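Hey,
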Amino acid sequence: MQAVFYGLGAAVIGIIAMISYKLTLKSISKFQFVAIRKKWVLWLFYPIAATITIITQNEEVLLFVAAGMIYMLIKAPPKWINQSANSLLLTGIGFWQFEWGTLGNIALFFAKAGAFVFGSGLAIVPFLHGGVVTEYQWLTEHQFVDAVAVAMITPGPVVITVGFIGYLVGGFPGAFIAAAATFLPCYLFYCNTSILF
């Protein structure tokens, strides 16, 4: 049996090597001079990340995130990089565009959603639709479907959609207030019950 396991170990190493080769071709480029020259940044990051992973025997998530951000900035630099310092404060892109009255309505509506909707994460979707699309008309049907889709493809609960809806309605302050108001009732309820028991 020991010989069989030695053979299986060699086979697994071969499979991992084949998969690594195929992933390299799909993720970075083919092993051709023209392709390597075109994707030189990826070919720079690839051996560095592989070496660090081999030495530390750990996948450094921040390393991969940093490499992705650098690659994104090199290949598709945002317009605000070439603009004035005001752009660095995220002004002029809808980030801070909101109305104070709307923020109050967002806080009240999402606090009700967090306090009175029970069940799975999807239970909040009809309630949000009734308020966001029908009652307040902050979003169109299409925008609401997009907001739910964003929540479904991101890790975490579907309730994350409230932050996206808040952003569409009131920029960053709207996103912050929508998320805080949704989770505040649960937090207060938890704190009160833990004090009692």
